[in-house]
Amino acid sequence: MLFISAVGLGSAQEGGSYNLNVRMADCEFAQKTTVFRFNQKELTKTVSADVFRSWQSTGIPEHVALMPAEDTRRIRLVVLDVSSGLTGAIDIPVLPSEIAKARETVPPPAPVATTPYLDLPDKVKAPSPPKVVASVTFHLNSGASGTLDWSGDSLLYQPAGEMPLTQAANGFSSYAFGGRFHCQDGHFVPLDSGDGEAALRFTFHNHNGKMVVVDLKGEQPIYLGDLPVDPSAQSLFDQVWKSSHCQAQ
C-alpha cells in the first residue's frame, strides 16, 4: 500500500466533489543501472469533499502490485500531479532473496473468525465498550418490524410486514443516539449542554473480521471499510442522515 500526500496537489472542485489528475509510474532497475523497465498508469480520481479532506491528513491510498524480474535490484515509484507539475519519488532496494520468496507459492490464509459487534460512540455519555451483537431489530405495535443485519458478508436491512422505512430509521436513531440529542433551530444538539457534539458515526464488525464505518457528518452518508453495505441499508442510513441533520422526512 502506497500513501500519496494530497497536500499541494492541484484539485478542481465541482460542486461537492474534487477532481484529481495524478499519474504514477514504477521503474525496475537491474544490476546495471542503465537497464530498466518502465510502467505507468493514470490515477485520476473524483471524490467527495469529505473524502478529499480526509486524504489531506492521511494521504491518498493506492495499492501497488509488482512482479519484478529476477535481476531487479531497485524499484523506483514516481508520482506526478499533472495539474501542478509536482513530482515525488521513492526508491526501494530489492534483494534476490526477496524476489525468490515472492515467487514461492503461498497457501491462502485461514479465514478470520471474530465476534460481530457494533460501536456506537453517541449512545452513552461516558466511553463504553462496543456491544457484541450481529443485528438490531425494530418493532411496531402492528407486528411489523425491520432488522439491520451484519451477521453475514454484508450490512443489509430487512423489513417484515408493513414497516415504513422512516419508522425503522427513527428506531435506529433512538437506539444509536440513546435519546441524548435533538433538533433545535435546525441543528442536532445535545440535550445536556455539558455534552459535546454528536460523532455521527457507527462502526459495524462482522463475523470474519470485516468492518464498515458509517459516517453521517458530511453532506451525505459515507461508508469506509471492507464490509459491503447493501442498497437496502444505504436507504435506511439516508433517512438516519436526514433526521440527524434535522431535515424533514
Blueprint (SSEs and pairs):
Blueprint: E1 2-4, E2 11-14, E3 17-20, E4 22-30, E5 36-42, E6 45-48, H1 49-58, E7 60-62, E8 72-81, E9 87-93, H2 96-102, E10 117-119, E11 131-132, E12 135-139, E13 145-149, E14 156-160, H3 165-177, E15 181-184, E16 187-190, E17 201-205, E18 211-215, E19 222-225, H4 231-244
Helix pairs in contact: 3-4
Strand order of the largest sheet: 11-10-17-18-19
Instruction: Give the overall shape, derived from the CA principal axes.
Output: elongated
Number of strands: 19
Q: What order do the helices and strands follow?
A: EEEEEEHEEEHEEEEEHEEEEEH
Number of helices: 4
Share of residues in strands: 35-45%
Cα-to-Cα separation, first versus last residue: 41 Å
Summed over residues and divided by their number, the pLDDT gives a mean of: 86
Rg over C-alpha atoms, rounded to the nearest angstrom: 24 Å
Q: Tell me the helix content.
A: 10-25%
Low-confidence blocks of residues: none
Structural class: alpha+beta
Main sheet makeup = 5 strands, antiparallel
Describe this structure in words.
The protein starts with a strand and ends in a 5-residue tail after the last helix. It has helices at residues 49-58, 96-102, 165-177, 231-244; strands spanning 2-4, 11-14, 17-20, 22-30, 36-42, 45-48, 60-62, 72-81, 87-93, 117-119, 131-132, 135-139, 145-149, 156-160, 181-184, 187-190, 201-205, 211-215, 222-225. The protein contains four helices and 19 strands. It is an alpha+beta fold.
Write a brief structural summary.
The chain has 249 residues and is of the alpha+beta class.
